[in-house]
Amino acid sequence: MEKSFEFAENVVGFMINDEIDQKKMDKILSKIKDRLGVVSPICLYVEDESNEGISVRGFLKALEFHFSHSNDLDKVAIVSDNNLFQKVMEVKDLLVPAKVQVFERKDRVKAMNWVMQ
Length: 117
What we know:
The chain is of the alpha/beta class. The protein has four helices and five strands, in the order E-E-H-E-H-E-H-E-H.
């Protein structure tokens, strides 16, 4: 299950407590699309509370969204202690125009500050 919240009109956050699979990614992307109907571009804060990371299908779904909405995302802060998830998101930073920054959970406040700047 995930919790979503807004820091500001243009910043949407998600707290995820299990693996981000394709189904969960669909729910997340639906909420992002709803916010994009109000304001664009937006920034995202995603915290992996479980350290289970993202499935391959979930990652591909996110990548597809980023390519089709390349001008709608400004920053993406990923907070996770899962090393594989961190590395995957760093690779994603090379593939999409949004700025992607990875933080460990102990640095969540730093991540929140970065995404809101």
